[in-house]
Task: inverse folding
């Protein structure tokens, strides 16, 4: 009995010893590695984890002078104010509408482009299309939105062209009903080429003998796309789909605050731009943090749900 | 490989169905080229046009209307654009240098085998891609706690590492053959020497792409400057552009007059400003284009 006890205790001792021994050994061997990691970890702690910790002001009546700790807890008051506020449903609707439209039009666009690029018989022409379609990705949002505003102005290019076929001028940016489409289509213009890179990369990993076999079976080009290429890049599509769905509740505030104006606010204002206005412009920090946190949590939930669904459907998942 | 299949396909005689497919496909691609290129060309042509001819003109431009470089003379004479350019160049150089040092250190450390705490550290880093504290807590940290309003730190340090770029570079560093590292270690090299003498020289394409991504990001960014800078002397180019292209057009859109502190700017000047602010990036990226697929592929398809 005693010996058994003694045995287990020595076993425990050696185990914990060996753990610490391993830590020490690892630290000795990798001391420069940990030295390199120090600024990196510090960066993530300060600029990513401290803000996560700071997000607790969503539950506080926050006064900057008192700091995060000194401000009193108020529970879900900010959330209730937001949910009951007059803008709540408008913000949710606009955010989901823009994302829904982008999921339907913007998500497949680069996939289709990659499939079509892959079928081009001239390598040189393919490279030209690629170079040109990558270009808008490198143009700043300020310039892209500036161009959109200019082309869609009452006397802008689009209205000049519409006048040629006898359609009267429309002030596109002042009409709420056009905003979602303008937002999504300008986004596709900017990102379709760049977005196709990842699918083209995935296509290069498909085994060429599959195409040979399909051809022997008499499959046309469309059938080859349908039965070989698309299944071949399906894991990539699913992966990006999961990531995209994880963004269902976010519309970039950067583009929105450039594009909205008092006249199209009804359809343009989204959760992120509301957070910006409330928090940065009106300095209502506690309330805007609550709105932002609500947004992050919903996004995270969407991501987990999409990941589950995908794992359930075809064994592709992020984790 | 792509070339081989393309040639082989071209060599095989095409059925009518195949030919229709090609015609449709090429037409779609040409349409896409026009839709993508025309807005950019329009801006370019308009910027070299004479203002009076341009405002009288209706419809598409197939070239500059009455060649004129007056708009560019005005743009280069505008002190706020010159200052904005200089500020942007400074933020971009400092910011990109910081990005590269931090990303290289992180990517090298995380690409090593046999690092005991690698798993938890990776989790700590990757988790931030999916969840964050939000705009306001970050703003409070930078503006209030660190007191970085009106400093270059606010535009550069909070974005010191882009996690996506870190993962791309990590995967690229992992592809460096282990034997080379072992050989260097036997010669007495430590990790810093291995990184500098072995890993970096063998990963130049990936490093070039990451450098481009970061530099373009700094060049094009306006939001952190909008939030953290109050002093106009410190404004980067994009904020000046925002005033010229957007605030201006919004003002005239809603009230019919432009606001007091911004001088009314002619149409062609607007286009010339766009060209001046965009050309440096657009002439840079085609040189690095062949590395994009590699650079983007590694981080994403494999992970």
Result:
């Amino acid at each position: 009995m005693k010996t058994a006890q003694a045995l287990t205790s020595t076993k425990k001792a050696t185990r914990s010893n060996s753990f610490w021994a391993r830590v020490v050994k690892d630290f000795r061997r990798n001391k420069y590695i940990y030295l390199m990691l120090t600024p990196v970890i510090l960066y993530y702690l300060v600029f990513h984890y401290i803000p996560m910790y700071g997000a607790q002001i969503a539950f506080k009546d926050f006064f900057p002078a008192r700091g995060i700790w000194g401000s009193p807890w108020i529970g879900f008051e900010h959330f209730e104010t937001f949910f009951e506020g007059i803008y709540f449903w408008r913000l949710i609707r606009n955010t989901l509408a823009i994302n829904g439209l982008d999921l339907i039009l913007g998500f497949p666009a680069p996939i289709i482009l990659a499939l079509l690029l892959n079928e081009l018989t001239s390598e040189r022409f393919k490279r030209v299309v690629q170079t040109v379609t990558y270009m808008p990705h490198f143009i700043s949002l300020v310039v892209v939105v500036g161009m959109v505003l200019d082309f869609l102005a009452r006397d802008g290019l689009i209205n000049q062209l519409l006048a040629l076929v006898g359609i009267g001028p429309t002030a596109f940016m002042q009409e709420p009903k056009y905003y979602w489409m303008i937002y999504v289509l300008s986004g596709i213009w900017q990102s379709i080429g760049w977005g196709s890179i990842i699918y083209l990369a995935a296509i290069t990993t498909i085994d060429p003998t599959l195409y040979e076999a399909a051809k022997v079976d008499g499959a046309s080009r469309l059938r080859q796309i349908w039965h070989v290429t698309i299944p071949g890049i399906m894991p990539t599509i699913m992966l990006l789909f999961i990531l995209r769905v994880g963004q269902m509740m976010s519309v970039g505030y950067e583009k929105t605050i450039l594009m909205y104006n008092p006249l199209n606010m009804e359809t343009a204002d989204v959760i992120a731009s509301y957070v910006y206005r409330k928090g940065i412009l009106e300095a209502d920090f506690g309330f805007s943090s609550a709105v932002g946190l609500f947004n992050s949590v919903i996004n995270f939930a969407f991501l987990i749900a999409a990941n589950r669904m995908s794992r359930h459907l075809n064994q592709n998942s992020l984790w | 490989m792509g070339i081989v299949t393309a040639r082989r396909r071209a060599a095989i005689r095409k059925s009518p169905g195949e030919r229709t497919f090609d015609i449709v496909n090429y037409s779609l691609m040409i349409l896409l080229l026009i839709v993508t290129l025309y807005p950019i060309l329009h801006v370019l042509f308009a910027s070299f046009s004479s203002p009076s001819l341009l405002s009288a003109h209706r419809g598409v431009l197939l070239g500059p209307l009455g060649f004129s470089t007056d708009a560019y003379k005005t743009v280069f004479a505008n002190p706020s654009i010159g200052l904005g350019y200089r500020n942007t160049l400074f933020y971009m150089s400092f910011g990109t240098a910081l990005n590269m040092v931090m990303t290289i250190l992180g990517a090298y450390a995380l690409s090593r085998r046999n690092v005991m705490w690698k798993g938890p550290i990776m989790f700590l880093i990757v988790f931030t891609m999916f969840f964050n504290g939000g705009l306001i807590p970050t703003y409070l940290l930078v503006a209030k706690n660190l007191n970085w309003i009106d400093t270059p730190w606010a535009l550069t340090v909070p974005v010191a590492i882009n996690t996506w770029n870190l993962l791309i570079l990590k995967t690229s560093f992992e592809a460096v053959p282990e034997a080379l590292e072992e050989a260097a270690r036997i010669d007495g090299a430590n990790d810093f020497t291995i990184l500098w003498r072995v890993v970096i020289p063998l990963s130049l394409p990936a490093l070039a792409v990451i450098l481009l991504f970061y530099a373009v990001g700094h060049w094009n960014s306006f939001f952190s400057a909008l939030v953290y800078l109050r002093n106009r002397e410190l404004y980067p180019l994009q904020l000046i552009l925002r005033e010229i292209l957007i605030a201006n057009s919004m003002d005239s859109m809603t009230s019919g007059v432009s606001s007091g502190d911004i001088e009314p700017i002619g149409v062609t000047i607007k286009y010339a400003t766009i060209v001046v602010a965009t050309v440096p990036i657009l002439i840079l990226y085609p040189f690095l284009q062949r590395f994009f697929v590699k650079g983007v592929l590694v981080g994403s398809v494999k992970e």
